[in-house]
Amino acid sequence: MKTDVYQKVTNKIIADLEKGELSWLKPWSSGNLEGRITKPLRHNGLPYNGINVLMLWGASVEAGYLSRYWMTFRQAKEMGAHVRKGERGNLVVYANTITKKEEQDDGSEEERKIPFMKGYSVFNVDQIEGLPEHYYTKPEPVIDPALRIEHAEDFFGNTGADIRHGGNSAHYANGSDHVQMPAFETFRSSEAYYATFAHELTHNAAFWIMPRGQRIALIRQGCPRDKAA
């Protein structure tokens, strides 16, 4: 049976509670919300309200998004941009009422307001490429970009891995097979950046070099076990 929108929202909140991480209550821990707490924004700059604020705050903290802006796949496309392959949207909801006329026993009609809720997916700007520049948050420099280590840059560049920079999270994404890194300038030192980079690339290597790691990843992506061997 298809899960309704109410249940999806409830499941998300329960999942956060069970993890013991109320990320949707602490947006100030994420880079895009340091300082004054602000609401997530639609593509046109209008703020989200209600449960959507908590849902998108939580998504930003969990994934490390820096931008406050969110939009649908179609809205990004209309601006000549595109959602990166492998990215997944986050649920937001729209609630309203419809008015329905019902015939009474005496033949008269009475209007009744019926509440409804529908859900749809939105993507953070950090998941989208090709948008106008003002949508993208520029991190405040912590270290001088000139402190990059040339031979380390050459080494990582020659690995052949799909390396992406942005957001506030360092991780390897199995589904899209890419290494995600925060901007170099946001690290406390060049050594910290390259140490983190090397760590995330080991996960990429586990998939491509170690047969067991590749098999597990393929199974997680839905490949039948007998074909993932």
Describe what you observe in this structure.
This protein starts with a helix and ends in a 9-residue tail after the last helix. The chain has 2 domains: 5-88 and 122-135, no CATH class; 145-220, no CATH class. A 3-stranded antiparallel sheet has the order 1-4-3. Strands 6-8-7 form a 3-stranded mixed sheet. Strands 2-5 form a two-stranded antiparallel sheet. It is elongated, with a radius of gyration of 22 Å. The protein has 6 helices and 8 strands. Helix content is 31%, strand content 20%. By secondary structure, the protein is of the alpha+beta class. The protein has helices at residues 5-19, 51-63, 73-78, 150-157, 190-208, 211-220; strands at 70-71, 82-83, 90-103, 109-124, 128-129, 163-165, 171-173, 178-181.
Shape: elongated
Low-confidence segments: 24-36, 225-229
What do the pLDDT scores average to?
A: 77
Percent in strands:
15-25%
Total number of strands: 8
Give the CA-CA distance, first to last residue: 32 Å
Proportion in helices:
25-40%
- Report the total helices: 6
Provide the structure class. alpha+beta
Kindly report the spatial arrangement of strands forming the biggest sheet.
1-4-3
Order of helices and strands: HHEHEEEEHEEEHH
Tell me the number of structural domains: 2
